[in-house]
Amino acid sequence: MKCLELLLPLVLLIRGNKIIHFFLLCRFISIWDISAMTNSCVVIPCTFMYPSAVRPYRGTHGIWYFGQPYPQLFPPVVYKSRTDIVHESYKGRTRLLGDLSQKNCTLQINNVGVEHSGRYYFRADLGGANIYTYPDFTELKVLDQPNIDVPAEIVSDERLDLTCYAPDNCPDMSPEIHWMYTDYLPEPLFTSDYVEESNTAVLASTLTFTPRPIHNGQLLGCRVHFPNTSFVYERLISLDIKYAPRTVWVNVSQEVMEGSSVTLHCDVDSNPAPRISWHFGDEELMSETASNASLFLESLTPEQEGVYTCVGDNGYGAMNTSMYLAVRYPPREPLVNESLTVQEGSTIALHCSTQGNPAPTLTWLKDGELVGTITAEEVNVLELLEITPQVDGTYRCLAENEHGRASSSLNITVEYTDISLIQESSFYFSEKYMMAVIVGTIGGVAVIAFIVAAVRYVGQNNKKENGNPGQDVGSRVENPSMFYSAVKKDKQSLRKKVLKTELLGSKFNSILEESTGDDSDYQSVGSMASLERQELNYAALEFVRGRPREGGFGRGDDGSDYTEIKAK
């Protein structure tokens, strides 16, 4: 302990012709802080010193002042050793425990109240001009409840020590400390100890536990009791537990109509209150520091459909929750192909695309009749294969959902051959071919029969002529008009005509055969008179069948029949 002994002239007061000298003895011991509970007592420890050359005159006396050390400022007198004259608030409450002759100025104040809190100064009176005022003071704090030492920050899931202090500066009373409302704490630990705090005796009780977010806002209490008295002091605190967002609550996903309005709510459980922000995709729509925040959306469009995310961040952690906002609307006007002209037998794809929520049902109609039904997604295609003339017409794509409908149309023109003409021609050529086969068969049989009859006839005439050799030929014929020496049938030519028609992917072949012959199938040989000196050696009828042409009908083997007529 350091001691500075200086005699300094303090004030020169002139009262009439008298000059009074005051000296200040500056000796720094310490500035005491001491506390006491109301209605209890408190002991203020005190020692003082003065220059060794000074000799007290008529003993040593002391005075305690409250608030100020200088008498000329008229501070309240707490205690005065020469007399009992003190301030009324201290009457009967103070007594000197120390021995001034031993430089001990310890003071006890009983039944202290809150009004007694403040600074206390000691003044030594050694007689004569040796009056010394010490600038050192003791700061007294009178408490009506115990102190609880709470950390500036209490973080969830981190060990916490809370200490309750009760001053123990009264020789006649010793405090006891108990904690209140600790039943809900997880495994609390209690320890007690006496400590010296700012040169004053203090009883300390420490509560140790690990807080959780659920403990935020819970009450804890410290109770101080002086045995054998009715004095009880309590203090309650509310735990301020810092924790990251635990839950983020938002609206459930919902559906709204296009053009309407909606409010999205977000509540975040955290301590301290977080910065709440609403996000749509990568865009931040709003933010504010609060435990809850609302986002108002009006005149909704389909582009505003999607995932909305609420983010809560309070520096101890962050959490987010999302919801889906669906915007319902009727189908938009479908986009379809331009009207087009196509070739018969080709393939085309009709495109129809539209938007709507829920996804529209697409219906293709041709001239008012149903062609196909599809559920729209992005683009839907109706494929028409092997185009026929019946495809020609007006096609309409109709989009429907529960909120409305829309449609678009296009025309398809098919370039094709007249179907009725093709069908009639096909039937005509098919019928003609069948008739040609039938007629050809019958004609062939008739020709063969004719040839056989002609051969027999010629043979019979030869026999007759051979039976009467002397008879003149011309005389045996009554009507010698014409006699044919030879009849020869040339090879018949077959002319083939092929008509090939393609209709709707099918091919029809019709083969028509027509027989043509020369007008001079027979040759005139003159009258019998002119044949008298001519010799007829052979007469032949020959039918030769041509080889079958490629793609035509085959014929049988070639054949010849002969007959011989001899005339002499």
From TrEMBL:
One of its GO terms (molecular function) is carbohydrate binding. One of its GO terms (cellular component) is plasma membrane. The keyword Cytoplasm does not apply. Keywords: Cell adhesion, Disulfide bond, Immunoglobulin domain, Lectin, Membrane, Transmembrane, Transmembrane helix. Its main location: membrane. It is a single-pass type I membrane protein. CDD domains: IgC2_CD33_d2_like (cd20987), IgV_CD33 (cd05712). Residues 135-238, 245-326, 331-413 form the Ig-like domain. The chain crosses the membrane at residues 433-455. It is found in: Membrane. GO terms for biological process: cell adhesion. Pfam families: I-set, Ig_3, V-set. Residues 547-568 are annotated as: Disordered. Belongs to the immunoglobulin superfamily. SIGLEC (sialic acid binding Ig-like lectin) family. This is Myelin associated glycoprotein.
